[in-house]
Structures are given as C-alpha cells and as structure tokens.
Write a structure and sequence with these properties.
4% of the residues lie in helices and 66% in strands. By secondary structure, the protein is mainly β. It has a 35-stranded antiparallel sheet that branches. Strands 8, 9, 10, 11, 12, 13, 14 and 15 form an eight-stranded mixed sheet that branches. It has a four-stranded antiparallel sheet with strand order 3-2-5-6, with no helix packed on it. The protein is globular.
Length: 922
C-alpha cells in the first residue's frame, strides 16, 4: 500500500509541475479611476465558448489570469456590477501579456461579438451566498445534477449520501426555490439532467418564518438551490431504464417531468431488488459514464455520534432489499398572490432480508463479559405520503404559509436470534428467540404561519400554529428460551407471549412574535411560545394458554399503561444586528413547564408531577472578513428534562436479559455548546478551505447505572453525573489546477473527536477517554472527454483509555484505498468504468474478516443520437463485498457483520427524450 501511495504522489507531482506557464495581467478601475474589487475575469475559446480559465480582481483592482499557450482565437471578458462589460479578442496567446489599466464605464450596452457566445460570471459571492454558473462547470454529456455538485470545491458526498459544503451539512435541496418531491433532494440529484441547470446557489438554511419575514437566518446548515435555465424551463424531459441480471436481479425506473414557467409536474416510478433507495441510484455509471453513483456500496467509513464511534468496513444497505416506489409532484404559481411550493404524493413498498453476527465485549471493573449472537429475519413495509405547501400573499405586507402532511405506514417483520454470554470462557446464559411484529401507524401534521409587515422597515408581527396527531398499534409475538447458569443450579425463563401495543401522540404549538427595529441595521424581537404534548402508551401482554390454544392468559407483570402530558410556555427576547458584513444575534428564553404522568405497572399505580423553570440562551456571530472569507462563532446552552420512563420507578422486565427501573430523583441535564467555523473561498488562487471546532460540556448528564448478577443478567437504573464533555475539530482544503484539457483537484481533509465520559458500571465508577483521528486525501485528474481518475485514501485511528475497568485501553486502525476510473472511447459513445477498493481493519474479533478487495465494472454504449444507452455492469466482481462494523463506547466494544448485496451481472437499456420549447434536445 505504501508503494501505491508513493506512485500516486509521484504521478500527480509530475502533473503539477506542468501547470499553467503564461499569464494575463491588468488593473480594473471605474470611470472615477477607483479600483474595482471582485470583478470577474475569464478567457473563452471562440469556437465553442468554453471557459479556458477565470479569476477575480483583488482590493487594488489587479488580476493575474494563468493560462497555457493558446494557438486558437479567444475572448477575454471582464464583468463587474454597475459597470459595462469589457471584451478583448486574441487570435493566439503565446506569451504573457500585460493589459495595463482597464477603465470600465457605467452600465451601458455591450458590443456584440458574433463569433462567440458571452456567458455570465463563473462564480459570484455575496455575503453568505455563493453562486456557481453551471455552464462554467464542465461535466460529461447526460450527467445528472449530482455530478455538478461533485465538481465544485468544498462539496463532499459521503457513503450514506450526506452532503456537506465546506464542512456544513446540507439539509435542503431545492429546484427553482421549491422542493422536488422531498427537501433532502435525493430524487432531484439523481434524476434531473445537468444541462437544464443555469446556476447552483449555496446559502444558509432559512426557516419558513425567516424566509417570509426577511429576517437573517440562524441555522448552522446549508441549502442548495438549482435554478433552471429559462430557455429550458418550458418542455418535457423523460428517463426510462430497464435491466435484468444474474440471480434474478432486476431494475426498472422512469421519470417524466413537464416544465412551463412556474408550472412543474413530475411523475416517477421505480422497482428493483439491488438495494437502490431511489431512482437511477443503482447505476454504476449513467448513460455517458458519469463516474461512480450511489449504487456503489462504498466502505471504510468512520462516524461518531455522541460518545459512540462506528468503524465501517465494506458497505451497502444492510440486508437484501426489494423496493417499489411511485410518486407525483406538482408545483405552480396562481396569479401574483398564490404560490404552490409543492404538492406531492408518494407510495413505497419494500421487502428486506437481514442476517447478522455480533461479538460484544462488555467492560466491567473486575472482568469482561463476552457475548456472541446471530440473527436473521425479514421485513415488509408499505408507506403512503402526502405533502403540500402553499404561500399566499393577502396584500403587499401580509403573507400566509400553509403546509399539511399525512403519512400512513404498515409493516410486518420476523426475526430469529440466538446469543450466549461468557465470563472467562464459562457460559453464564444463553438465549434462543423468535419474534414477529405487525404494526400500523398514521400521522397528520398541519402547519400554518402568518406574517404581517408594517410601513416602518423592519417592524413586523408573526404567528404560527404547528400541530401533530399520530397513532400506532403494534402486535409483538415473542417466543424465547432463556437459560441462566449459576453455582446453585440452572434456571430458566421461557416465554411465549403476545403483546398488543397502542400509542397515541398529540402535540399543539402556538407561537406569536413582534419585531421592532432599533436602527436601520438592528432590531429587537419578543416571542411567546405555548406547547402542549400528550401521549398514551398501552401494552397488554398475554401468555399462551395450552388449554385454550390461544394467547389468553393475562400477564400483569409485563403489561402497563402510561399517560403523560407536558405543558410549556416559553417567552423569548432576541436582539439582532444585520449589516453588510456582520450578522449578530443573541436570545434569552425561559421554559416554564409542568409534567403530569399517570401509569399502571404490575397492578400498581404511579403518579408523577413535576414543574420546571429552565433558562436557555443562544449567541451567534457571523462576520465576513473579506471576499469569500467567513467567520462564525456560535454558543448555545439549555436544560433537558428526563423522560417519563426514566423518572417513573417501575421495573420493566420485558427483556429477559435486562431489567430497567426509573429514578424519580433525576435532575435536569444542562449542556453548553460552543463552535467556531471559518471558511475561505479564493477565486483568484482557485483555493478553498474551511476549519471548524466544537466543544460541548454536560452537567447532570443522565447515564445508565448498570449492575450484573452472577448469570450475566443486566439490571439498569438511571443516575446523574457531571463533567462529560466532547471536542471535535475538522478541516478541508481544495486546490484546482487547469491546463489545456487537463484538470487536477487536490482535496486533503482531516477531522478528530475527543470524548470524556464518566459513569457507573456494576456499581462502581469509571472514566473513559476516547480519541478519533481521521485524515484523508481525495484526488481528481481529468483529461477532457478521455479519462477521469479519482484516487482517494483514508485512515482512521481510534484509541480509548479507561480507568477502573478490567482493560485499560482499546485501539483500532481502519484504512481504505479507492481508485475510480472512467474511460471515454470512440468520441464518448463507449464508456468504460472501473471502481477498485481495498479495506483493512487492524483489530477485529476472530471470525470476522479483517480486509477485503472490492471491484465494480461497467461498459456503456450510446446510440441513436445518444438517446439510447445499452450497458452491462458487474457488481462486486471478486465476490468479496462485506459489511463489518466496529462500535466503541465508554462501556463496551463490539464487532458486527451484516448480510449485504454481493456479486451480480446486470444488462440494461436506458432511453432519454428531452423537448424544450417544442424542440428536441440531445
């Protein structure tokens, strides 16, 4: 592996040495001879208007555009706001040139140049919004819009499809500012063609209240908005793919979208048994070989959630899944006052076969428990979704937003499992079980928002109502044989029970607020929020009666009934400053609530009533240090009250291997989080990088207070501890080099996590210190229309130190090396794709494979004006794909292997048909 990395490093070092050798220099000023900062300077080829390179002016108005020798005609173009554009033609460029001072006049007409199509600026940056011109991002023909994102510096898409932009998570993806079926945008990313997109905008996510009221956003997440080219916003696009392969593997998907101005109607359908979660996600390469898509089950991921760290080797959806989905999405604008954001209907049907093997080591003060378990099962589910949202302007100052949502689910699953627990090689207990679940659930969530502005700028009132009504029922059959071994003899706990569970949850939220401007850039807001939640949980358990042959013997010990209601009123005061480069807000809130719980367990009544008065505050500073440079500091503190189950002191013995009991003396958990984020996007040097640091401290943290008897059975209650804390830090760097038809992007990244936790295990206190270090490197090298090479390497270090345990530390190292190759043959009509991957784990339990090789290959041929594509693809050529995961916590570590999809060969054919403004588009 070291030799491989050395060869990759040498190869790309040679490439870097052959970067741009020439440059065009100049200085831009306005009619008053004042320098113009951030003017966009770019060079276009006359023959096809493709961008050779681009840059931007600095504070002094100077620029230096790096290029290679160019022996064909080209056009230099300079754009800036409120001034006329500048163009200059070159027949050839064979030496560096100084253009001297260039003075731009006030906005006027631009001289037409017939030989070349002048495009807009490749990149625009305005406060917290970065906008990329899609025409400046060269992707392969027939690419989906997901490929546009992959070519933008700072954008990362991980194994689970999670998207981050310069380290910030993307939680919304819009098309023309509206959802396309769903706000997470997965369907849009993998189905809409890139060639209809005009701009891609990255901005801070806004709530609907912030969007309609015009307030500055408070979110730490990012929204991506794709705007459709107006020339292609009238027409029809269709996609259809069908395929069949070995082991009866199949795929079929279709999408038809009609666009006309504000009207958009989309129909889609998909069915497959190759673990595809959406539409066309199963393809290795789309019809023109657009690199690796989401069907590729990538491996070697590392993630941390709270104090739990997961190390994944291999990958893919757990189990073998068959799924079918159909959907309709409609959006429109009715006149000037009504805007239908989305009207969506979706139905999905899936069946998943699962199988797993787990080896867990539970850490105790004097010894370690080893638990080995295996399980297999199947799950069938159906889901119906209705979602709509509409904005109505009552007048120029008043707006209403309405968004109802309805979801219906039904499922049936069964599972066979067996487990055994040992201490120093001696068997303590073992269990064999069969369980099944038959469930249904319905939920309805209407949302209404009202906003009224006044003539005085910044003054407004708002109110919203958000409620939810849900109910569910679940029938759980449990048949288990549980054996406990101890010195006094062997005991048994065998069960054959049917539990009928019913749950109802209702919530109602009302919020009213008033905002008053203090100055032209600051305001004060006062809001009051009222919230009430009620729930009813009923569990009736009946044992099997051999006499009647039915589940008719009522089990009082395991049956229970809990009703709870929480009422809360929260006044909040917010001060906000919103200037050109500065956005600051601070808020203080007081949460006054009361909790009432009435429950019945084992025939005993438990009543609980508690009142809480808990403060909360938020402080956020957002500052633009310069063009493309953003600094954000965020501090948040609040209290969390324990759940009713944690407070009620009943014994829950529904699990024969673990008993849980609440603690009414639990205190509220106080947490404080501080984060710092810095991002720099430098258009002049083609560099972007980001750094983020976060710290969280928790006081009176609620932890499991666990003890174990001599048979290995766990008895759990809850307690408070203070001093638990975590630190995370990360960063990424991106540098893009372009010369002739070559492009190289270098993207190293790094993140680390530290967690300190203390608690109690087997009645004794313990502490754990966990460290996770995860450096990685991505490289992308492309020769236009010939080859794309994407090597990447990641290594994850984890070491945890413990006190008052039978072991003092646990260490592991996970590595992943990947290489993705795409070759274009015969003018791109043939596309050959290969993905190679090697994963290894230095420390994993016996019986689990420590390393494996993974290889996918695909060959596609486009014909009939590239409207049809025939493909053959082989998934997991070596038949070695696996899913192995190590989980490390402060009280145990375990290794787990799950059943996933393995080798198959698939033959498929795809058809596309685009018609824009009455004309066919290729």
């Amino acid at each position: 592996m070291k030799k491989t990395l050395l060869l990759l490093t040498l190869m790309f070092t040679v490439i870097i040495l052959h970067a741009q050798k020439l440059h065009l220099d100049g200085k831009i000023s306005d009619s008053e001879k004042k320098p113009i900062e951030n003017a966009t300077v770019y060079l276009l080829k006359v023959k096809d208007s493709s961008i050779v390179n681009y840059t931007a002016t600095n504070k002094e108005g100077k620029f230096s555009l790096k290029i290679d020798e160019l022996k064909e005609p080209s056009i230099l173009k300079i754009d800036a706001e409120k001034v006329s554009s500048y163009t200059k033609r070159f027949e050839k460029i064979d030496q560096s040139l100084s253009l001297g001072d260039i003075q731009l006049e006030k906005q006027g007409l631009v001289n037409a140049i017939d030989e070349v199509k002048i495009t807009v600026s490749p990149v625009k940056i305005k406060k917290d919004t970065i906008e990329f011109n899609a025409a400046a991002i060269k992707v392969r023909p027939d690419s989906k819009i997901e490929e546009l994102l992959k070519q933008i510096p700072g954008v990362e898409i991980n194994n689970d499809g999670k998207i981050t932009v310069n380290g910030k998570e993307v939680d919304q993806i819009m098309i023309n500012g509206k959802p396309f079926f769903d706000k997470d945008g997965k369907i849009a990313l993998q189905n809409l063609p890139a060639d209809i997109i005009k701009n891609i905008q990255f901005t801070t996510t806004k709530t609907k209240e912030e969007e309609l009221s015009g307030k500055a956003p408070k979110s730490q997440n990012t929204t991506i908005n794709f705007t459709i080219d107006e020339k292609k916003n009238k027409g029809l696009l269709t996609r259809l793919t069908v395929g069949y392969g070995s082991d009866k593997r199949y795929e079929a998907s279709g999408l038809a979208s009609y666009f006309k101005g504000n009207t958009k109607i989309s129909l889609l359908a998909s069915s497959n048994n190759i673990n595809s979660q959406g539409f066309s996600r199963d393809e290795v390469f789309d019809s023109m070989g657009n690199g690796r898509n989401a069907w590729m089950m990538q491996g070697g991921s590392v993630s941390t959630v709270g104090n739990v760290t997961y190390y994944s080797q291999g990958g893919g959806t757990k189990g073998i899944q068959r799924s079918t989905t159909i959907g309709l999405n409609y959006s429109d604008k009715f006149g000037k006052d009504a805007d239908l954001d989305s009207f969506s209907l979706m139905h999905s049907d899936s069946n998943t076969e699962t199988k797993s093997k787990v080896s867990r080591s539970t850490l105790l003060p004097d010894y370690t428990l080893q638990t080995h378990s295996e399980s297999n099962g199947e799950n069938e589910s159906k889901q119906y979704n209705f979602d709509a949202s509409v904005k109505i302007k009552l007048d120029s100052m008043t707006s209403i937003y309405l968004s109802p949502r309805f979801t219906k689910n039904s499922s049936f699953s069964f599972n066979n499992s067996k487990s055994s627990t040992l201490r120093n090689g001696s068997l303590l207990n073992e269990s064999n079980a069969y369980s099944s679940n038959d469930s249904e659930s319905n939920s309805f969530s209407p949302y209404l928002y009202f906003s009224r502005k006044f003539r005085k700028k910044g003054r407004s009132v708002s109110a919203n109502i958000n409620s939810s009504i849900s109910e569910s029922r679940r029938d759980n059959l449990n048949q288990s044989q549980n054996t406990f071994y101890q010195q006094s003899g062997t005991t048994f706990d065998n069960r054959d029970q049917l539990a009928k569970n019913k749950n109802q949850n209702n919530s109602f939220n009302f919020n009213a607020g008033y905002t008053e401007p203090v100055s032209d850039s600051s305001s004060v807001s006062f809001e009051v929020k009222y919230e009430t939640k009620s729930s009813t949980d009923l569990r009736n358990v009946n044992d099997f009666d051999n006499v009647t042959g039915n589940y008719s013997k009522f089990n009082q010990l395991l049956s229970n009934n809990m009703k709870q209601r929480i009422n809360q009123i929260s006044p909040e005061l917010t001060y906000q400053i919103n200037k050109n480069k500065l956005n600051f807000w601070a808020s203080a809130k007081l949460n006054v609530s009361d909790m009432k719980v009435n429950s019945l367990y084992n025939g005993q009544q438990y009543n609980l009533q508690k009142n809480f008065t808990l403060p909360e505050y938020n402080v956020n500073l957002y500052y633009q240090l310069g063009e493309g440079k953003i600094l954000s500091i965020y501090n948040y503190s609040n209290f969390t009250i324990p759940t009713a189950e944690q407070l009620t002191p009943y014994k829950d013995e529904s699990n024969p291997l673990a008993t849980y009991q609440g603690n009414p003396d639990l205190k509220n958990t106080w947490s404080n989080s501080l984060s710092l984020y810095f991002n720099n996007y430098n258009k002049v040097k083609y560099i972007s990088y980001y750094i983020n640091i976060g710290f969280t401290y928790r006081n009176n943290d609620i932890i499991n207070f666990s003890t174990y008897d001599n048979t290995g059975k766990q008895i759990v209650t809850y307690d408070n501890v203070s001093g638990n804390k975590s630190i995370n830090a990360g960063g990424g760097f991106s540098k893009t080099l372009k010369w002739k038809n070559n492009t190289l992007t270098i993207n190293p990244r790094f993140n680390m996590n530290y967690a300190y936790n203390n608690g109690f295990i087997d009645g004794q206190s313990f502490t754990s210190n966990s460290y996770n270090l995860n450096p990685g490197l991505n490289l992308v090298y492309e020769i236009k229309d010939k080859i794309t090479i994407r090597p990447s390497y990641r290594i994850g270090y984890n070491f945890s130190n413990y006190t008052n345990y039978s072991v003092t530390n646990v260490n592991t190292t996970n590595q992943s090396l990947k290489l993705e190759l795409t070759n274009y043959l015969l003018k791109g009509n043939f596309v050959l794709g290969n993905d190679f991957e090697y994963n290894t784990n230095s420390n994993i339990a016996p019986g689990f494979k420590k390393d494996f090789y993974f290889w996918n290959t695909s060959l596609g041929y486009s014909f009939y004006k590239k409207q049809f594509t025939a493909k053959v693809k082989v998934y997991d050529v070596l038949n070695q794909n696996q899913s192995v995961r190590r989980t490390i916590t402060d009280s145990y570590f375990e290794d787990r292997e799950d059943l996933i999809l393995k080798r198959y060969i698939m033959f498929s054919i795809s058809m596309k048909l685009n018609k824009f403004a009455g004309k066919k588009a290729q």
